[in-house]
Automatic annotation (TrEMBL):
Pfam families: Hist_deacetyl, zf-UBP
Gene behind this protein: HDAC6
Main localisation: other
GO cellular component terms attached to this protein's record: axon; centrosome; dendrite; histone deacetylase complex; perikaryon
Subcellular location as annotated: Cell projection, Axon; Cell projection, Dendrite; Cytoplasm, Cytoskeleton, Cilium basal body; Cytoplasm, Cytoskeleton, Microtubule organizing center, Centrosome
TM spans (from-to): none
Source organism: Alligator sinensis
Catalytic reaction(s) noted: N(6)-acetyl-L-lysyl-[protein] + H2O = L-lysyl-[protein] + acetate; N(6)-acetyl-L-lysyl-[alpha-tubulin] + H2O = L-lysyl-[alpha-tubulin] + acetate
Domain UBP-type residue range list: 820-918
Phylogenetic classification of the source organism: Eukaryota, Metazoa, Chordata, Craniata, Vertebrata
Protein name as catalogued: Protein deacetylase HDAC6
Residue ranges with Acidic residues bias: 520-529
An example molecular function term from Gene Ontology annotations: hydrolase activity
Family label: Belongs to the histone deacetylase family. HD type 2 subfamily.
Pathway: Protein modification; protein ubiquitination
Record keywords, A-Z: Actin-binding, Cell projection, Chromatin regulator, Cytoplasm, Cytoskeleton, Hydrolase, Metal-binding, Methylation, Nucleus, Phosphoprotein, Repeat, Repressor, Transcription, Transcription regulation, Transferase, Ubl conjugation, Ubl conjugation pathway, Zinc, Zinc-finger
């Protein structure tokens, strides 16, 4: 029988608020009358199943107020007869006992030091796990909204219904649009796009930017005769008017708005508006430079005021400065989070003011006004002939760092193509393929919400090719290859460095960049800049008729976009001594399960897994090492443990060799599919990992270096010279990849950290902090012997021209900052009278590779990445301080950190003098 709800319990719907019992409540299976034999702990209440209750101690401090529990069995039902729960928990008359005497609680022993440490570690681990779980709550991809699909394309033949009545050869002509449309149809791009219906912009939409008086003036031109139209046109700079100009200008502005609305509503992913007349020169009350209404500015205001966006980025890559857009937004009011709503970026030809529109406001010193200060970024080119490398460097060094910091919600592009090669106005040398790359870089912003609006471009051949390339990027096609390796010219580097120096005060993402003043002693700079204000004499560029054909066949689109390779057999590699080892089979099984949950696996082409053959393994590894790993098959557990302990952080089991061959083979299978054109790109979900594996040694959970094997294999099977870039974003340095390719100039490798000395292959390996800004750093040659090129000499793109004071010192460039002191410096002994022998081999194994010297006994032993004899020496002797002969860094084994202290300088100075033949730089 269930007793009624006690008075102290509150009923709320189906939930009954019950007293929360202390943890110390026991039900004991004893007969009545035997309660005296029960040992009762402090604060504990005991009920006997026979119905008797042992007298409780006073109410336990853990007893809490009423707590709701949903549909529990009523507490009274579990109480013995005659006992009912009260507001303080179960209670009953105190039974007779030993005069109510209470035994004192036993004394609690204080935990020892080991137990205290264990508890402290447990608390820290629990806190770290809680913080990690909290952070992962925000990384749930399943909670993301569906990604819009489709690329919109807007075009209307009515936009060709106006032209210059008094100059049939005027460059802004209807053929600009018709030739583009023909080209897009020929390339099969139109049928892949979602058509967007063009529309007229309303007067209210135009008034978002332009004044009522200017709108009335433009409307009046529809009824003017040719003579009045010409007279009115002559009062403006580079403008012609036609009776249909007003209608077409409204249609152009409305068409851009139609595409923007489709993108912002999620109906489309991105879009292109093919319109004329252009618009980016038009100001609030003035037409100029072929432009009547400023379409992009109207779209930005519309997105902000009508669609509620807070941040819009406008990118203007037309060869002429879009002064109209700049003037409209240069004092843009702040709308949220103390941030102006529109960021304007323009890269254009300037020639120190000699190029149209001849305005000081087109220089990089114009940064906006008032609340908009810092949100106008001008990058002026001061000579013609700028190339793909100059424009790509401008995006990587200046635009993208600021854009990712700004985090726009929409990207509008004033897409002029008069910087393309052969354009008679721009006189630049940008290939059509470059516009595909620029578009592709912008798609990483605003969730891909990018809208291109046509501006200039007056060589019909390069114009149509450039538009086709940009639209291909919007559709997700691979970017066409550029002409070949190239570096920005000195004039471009000067302009970029000047802009960086100006805008570093506004944007923290630029404040780590070191820039200093231009030195005319730099080789080739003075000749490249000429003698007249840094502007070279005019160069003869090919005219449209003499322009070589740009109709290179576009890259063939593979039948599938992304390949995926995986094999369950890789999970047979496991640590039989530690089931919780971080490199365990669940890493790949859960990764694949997540791809399946998100529906990504079914969108990929499954590629066949395979084992790497021995000749393939020998592309990077020695025959002896491959034989040693093969010999582990069939070994007993003790022998496997001994085999793994020979290496640094490696375990082995009977299936390890096959799993490692399978991991490498799957990566090679992905390479085959990409090179054969079967897929555009591929993902290999493999284990064990590989980037730490050396040519003759396993290391860091890695057995075979899968990525290094893939690079060598690709060069072998491509049938042509192949340049390979390896990007390693693992948090640990891929020492194996670096050592394999440090003398191979065909493979460039880069890591997201900076720790090692410059490699030997003329700069083809480097570590980089914040890769988008890499090209803006100025690197002196540190720790590098004279026969080896410094990073700038190996990569001209890294040689920015200095233009001002440094914002940070070179000491701050290290991703790992050495400790300035440690308690073990007292173990450092003076340098022996015999000095140091930096070429001495390891005293244990004779290795002459990466060796260290003990700063206590001055023994020379090999590093952990070779045979680990210095690590063993430190454990056995207790000598913690060692110095690397490779990069002259000092390490403390006890502190597990790099150390830099004056106590170490005598040994460092001597080693540096012996290694490089000169004194240690002062910055060290």
């Amino acid at each position: 029988m269930v007793s009624p709800t006690p008075p102290s319990a509150h009923v709320q719907g189906n939930c009954v608020a019950q007293p929360r019992l202390p943890r110390a409540v026991r039900m004991v299976s004893l007969r009545a009358g035997q309660s005296d034999s029960i040992r009762q702990r402090p604060g504990e209440t005991i009920f006997l199943k026979g119905g008797e209750q042992v007298k409780p101690f006073p109410p336990h401090p853990d007893l809490q107020p009423l707590t709701p529990t949903c549909n529990p069995p009523c507490l009274a039902a579990a109480m013995p007869p005659g006992v009912s729960p009260g507001p303080e928990g179960p209670s009953a008359p105190a039974p007779s006992g030993r005069a109510g005497r209470r035994a004192p609680p036993p004394p609690r022993r204080s935990p020892g030091l080991p137990e205290a440490k264990r508890r402290g570690r447990a608390r820290r681990l629990h806190q770290e796990v809680a913080e990690l779980q909290d952070g992962l709550q925000h990384l749930d991809l399943a909670a993301e909204k569906p990604v819009p699909s489709g690329t919109g394309l807007a075009y209307d033949k009515e936009l060709t219904s106006f032209h210059c009545l008094w100059d049939k050869s005027f460059p802004e002509c209807p053929a600009r649009l018709t030739s583009i449309w023909t080209k897009l149809v020929e390339d099969g791009l139109v049928e892949r796009c979602v058509p967007v219906q063009a529309r007229l912009a309303t007067e209210e939409e135009i008034l978002l930017v332009h004044s009522p008086q200017f709108l009335a003036l433009m409307a009046s031109t529809a009824d003017m005769e040719e003579g009045k139209l010409r007279a009115l046109s002559d009062t403006y700079d580079s403008v012609y008017l036609h009776p249909n100009s007003y209608h077409c200008a409204r249609l152009a502005a409305g068409t851009v708005l139609a595409v923007v609305d489709k993108v912002l509503s999620g109906e489309l992913r991105n879009g292109l508006a093919l319109i004329r007349p252009p618009g980016h020169h038009a100001q609030r009350e003035r037409m100029e430079g072929y432009c009547l209404f400023n379409h992009v500015a109207i779209a930005a205001r519309h997105a902000r005021e009508r669609r509620g966006l807070q941040r819009v980025l406008i990118v203007d890559w037309d060869v002429h400065h879009g002064q109209g857009t700049q003037f409209i937004f240069e004092d843009d009011p702040r709308v949220s989070y103390n941030t102006p709503s529109v960021l304007y970026f323009s890269v254009h030809r300037y020639d120190n003011g000699a190029f149209w529109p001849h305005l000081p406001d087109s220089d990089s010193s114009a940064v906006g006004r008032g609340q908009g200060c810092g949100f106008t970024i001008n990058l002026p080119w001061n000579q013609p002939g700028m190339t793909d490398a100059d424009y790509i460097s401008a995006f990587l060094q200046l635009l993208l760092p600021v854009a990712f910091e700004f985090q726009p919600q929409l990207v509008l592009v004033a897409a002029g193509f008069d910087a393309a090669i052969g354009d008679p106005k721009g006189q630049m040398l940008v290939s059509p393929a470059c516009f595909a790359h620029l578009t592709h870089m912008l798609l990483a912003l605003a969730g891909g919400k990018v809208v291109l609006a046509l501006e200039g471009g007056y060589n019909l051949h390069s114009l149509t090719e450039g538009v086709s390339a940009a639209l291909g990027s919007l559709l997700g096609d691979p970017c066409p290859p550029l002409a070949g390796p190239a570096a920005p010219c000195p004039s471009a580097l000067q302009s970029i460095s000047k802009a960086l120096g100006i805008h570093a005060q506004f944007w923290p993402s630029l404040q780590h960049v070191e820039v200093s003043a231009l030195s005319t002693e730099d080789e080739g700079v003075e000749e490249a800049l000429g003698e007249t204000g840094g502007v070279p004499s005019p160069v003869e560029l090919p005219c449209p008729e003499a322009l070589p054909s740009l109709e290179a066949p576009p890259p063939r689109r593979p039948p599938a976009c992304t390949g995926l390779v995986y094999d369950e057999r890789m999970t047979q590699h496991y640590n039989m001594w530690d089931s919780q080892h971080p490199e365990r089979p669940q890493r790949v099984t859960r990764a694949l399960s997540r791809l399946q949950e998100l529906g990504l696996e079914r969108r990929c082409l499954r590629l066949p897994p395979r084992l790497a053959t021995e000749p393939e393994l020998l592309l990077c590894h020695s025959p002896e090492y491959v034989a040693r790993l093969r010999a582990t098959v069939g070994l007993r557990p003790r022998e496997l443990h001994r085999a793994g302990s020979r290496y640094n952080s490696v375990y082995m089991c009977g299936e390890s060799f096959e799993a490692a061959c399978l991991a490498a083979g799957c990566v090679l299978s992905a390479v085959d599919a990409v090179l054969a054109g079967q897929v555009q790109n591929a993902v290999a979900v493999v284990r064990p990992p590989g980037h730490h594996a050396e040519p003759d040694a396993a290391c860091g959970f890695c057995l075979f270096n899968s990525v290094a094997l893939a690079a060598r294999y690709a060069q072998q099977v491509a049938g042509r010279p192949l340049r390979v870039l390896i990007l390693d974003w693992d948090i640990h340095h891929g020492n194996g990849i670096q050592h394999i390719f440090e003398e191979d100039p065909r493979v460039a490798t880069t890591w997201q950290q900076q720790q090692s000395p410059w490699p030997r292959a003329s700069g083809h390996c480097w570590e980089t902090p914040h890769w988008p800004h890499l090209q803006s750093w100025h690197y002196p040659c540190l720790h590098t012997p004279s026969p080896v090129l410094s990073m700038p000499s190996a990569w001209p793109a890294l040689c920015t021209v200095p233009t001002g004071p440094a914002f940070v010192s070179m000491d701050a460039l290290y991703a790992v900052t050495p400790l300035s002191w440690c308690p073990h410096l007292s173990s450092v002994a003076p340098v022996p009278p015999a000095g140091l022998d930096i070429l001495a081999p390891c005293q244990k194994c004779g290795c002459q590779g990466e060796n260290w010297v003990c700063l206590t006994c001055y023994q020379v032993l090999c590093s952990r990445y070779v045979a680990g004899h210095m690590v063993a020496h430190g454990d056995a002797s207790g000598h913690p301080m060692v110095l690397s002969f490779a990069d002259l860094s000092a390490w403390c084994y006890d502190c597990e950190a790099y150390i830099h202290h004056p106590t170490l300088l005598p040994a460092k100075i001597l080693a540096h003098r012996l290694k490089f033949g000169n004194e240690l730089p002062a910055l060290l």
